[in-house]
Amino acid sequence: MNSLASPSAAPARAKRHLPAFLSHPSVVVGGFLVLAIVLMAMAAPLLGTVDPTRIDPGMRLKPPSELAWFGTDLFGRDVYSRAVYGARSSILIGLCVATAALLIGVTVGLVTGYFRWVDAIVMRVMDGLMAIPTFLLAIALVSLTRASIGTVVVALTIPEIPRVVRLVRSVVLTVREEPFVEAAISVGTSTPKILVRHILPTTYAPLMVLGTYICASAILIEAGLSFLGTGLPPEIPSWGNMISEGRTFFQVAPRLVFLPSLFLALTVLGINLLGDGLRDTLDPRIAKRM
Amino acid sequence: MLMKTPPVIEVQDLAIPLPGGGDRGFAVDHVSFSVAAGEIVCVVGESGSGKSVTAQSIMGLLPKVFPKPAGRILFEGRDITRAAPAEMRDLRGRGIGMIFQEPMTALNPVQAVGKQIDEVLRTHLRLSGKDRFNRVIAAMKEVNLPDPERMYHAFPHQLSGGQRQRVLIAAALILGPKLLIADEPTTALDVTTQAQILKQIRDLQRERDMGVLFITHDIGVVREIADRVVVMKAGKIVEQGLTDRVLDQPTSDYTRMLIAAVPTLEPKRKDHVVTGEVAIKVDGLAKTYHSGGLFRDRRTVHALQGASLCVRRGETLGIIGESGSGKSTLARCITQLIEPSSGKVTLSGGRDGRAFRQRLQMVFQDPYRSLNPRRTVGQSIIEGPMNFGQSRAQALERARELMQLVGLEPHAVDRFPHQFSGGQRQRISIARALAMEPDILVADEAVSALDVSVQAQVLRLIDDIQKRLDLAILFITHDLRVAAQICDRLIVMHRGEVVEEGTVASVFAAPAHPYTRELLASIPGRAEETVSA
């Protein structure tokens, strides 16, 4: 839409932010953790894993050995392989929920922030959405349709949208009064162009930060849903599923719970650290608003 | 007589290094001056001259980015640069009082103003609640705040700008400090209020025989209030001495330039004959705001009540008024940035078939905010022409020409706004407006945010461009000196109404409306000039 806008503007900004980014300890540590987990998820077949869904009744609840590095679970599946593959579903869900919530939230937020008459209506709808408990919505959706990644993504996205809308709206409300927006109006720029060209770029920094938080919370909630048995179907390896299944044998074989919990904790820690670091370097003001 | 009293504050060889990356080594570069009891010393200089940093270092309020200053600051003979934080805290308020530029932000918006004055007493003295209340009321009476008992409980937003500044003065002076530091205390105020506040400071200073360090950029204010003047430029003192001597026989070129840059009240366009056709006609334009709603009382504000005007090509019409007079509302109604409640705007003459937004363009007040910081100035300039179908290459070519026309390098189109100074940015804003090849230019306080020397340059540019392009200009300003430089005719606005209209010379020489007379009388430094009809 604005071929002339972004390319030349973006590098100059990136150059200004890059050193601050890289010197912030949270960004370095968090970024390293996230990168490691993402690489692990992508390279799962190459990391000495076996088929995470293969059931072997003869190998039930075996302790760690050369064949199964972290032992096997109740159905004889390899715990290590399932934990490594589990990263795929967690990261997929985290990314999908964050992307979907940001896309929808930004569109709605831009429109509600700019047009006052839409604002009154849409924000009440958002208030309604915010009142829906994530878990109840997910349980309802899963029991109405069937357990799948898509259902879980939808269930997790809906309650996140109002947070994005509120953030974008608050930025738009302040920016639209800026003289440079009035200047754009007075040279005859159309409203959609003003929204995309002049107002949207001001929301990038806070959105990046909010995006990481949404991603982390989606991963956590997915694990929680799977633990309750209303998340992903049991055959898909996911950390929540593993913790749920391992719970019964916790006293006999704590390793069943230990490995997925460790991965889950590290992932969420990494994403949150990254988000905190981005917030500090990109937009210190947002720290107060969150 | 002034020299005999010992100095209250003596600054000796004060040097404050600028943190890395600045355009010069020192924010304040080995500066020495003093203020004696019973005198007002004005520090005058343009933005970035280091005058505010000097004041902050005297108060011990230097922002943390600055390293520790070198040199000595003697308060009644004692070096306060070495004072402990607790000593400084005691000195502030008791020994030195300070007032600031923006009275709205200097007051806490969620605390009653009386309580804020009271805070000084609570911090420094042990008094009963009743004694404190009485002293606060007495202090408020002293600065002529109306009905102090009631105003004690008012919040800052319920007060006018002048009243807020009075509250700050009351708080600064309640403990009877020996020195008052005033950092541009009247810059954010209207001229009529400014005149009152200046008189107030003058009176209190005489009554209490205190020293005042008054920081300003306005030579007119200096003339009005100062006993002695210190002229600063780029962190250095270029000249200091008695006010009459410095202003009437300046020894440095910089001081001469500063004085010469202050526009005179002599109407420049007395002999300018306007023959152009009518470019814009405004009939009974009004704007009414309604506030409140379902659960609150409905309130109606008449921001603009039936303004009519007409401007010919080649003519500049000045719209004069203070804040809240409706002049900006008028400009925004004319430029269709807001919808007027009634009345109409007709553009006539000029080439037909062009859109409204092509024929009428606007230059905004704040050059720091009217350009999108994320886009190059070239992108900002070509945005308009491209909206109306010009090709990118064509528009960019024209943008380079315009940059040259407004006195900037043509290749600077690839730079971002933050790489330009305020004056340069305002030139860019003008170039952006001209890119649309308008017939009518609306300039809303277009030179108010600029230093006087830059202001003069931008005024010359506007004047020059008007002649070349035969523009009709609506020039909105609160500054009568600026209006005298560039306008052919004036309309004076007060509370949303046009109260006076006429040529600059006739309005200045024989103002008909009392408000116009008050405006004219309030111009700082006016006594030195005579206005000829």
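qc> The mean pLDDT of chain B is 88.
qc> done
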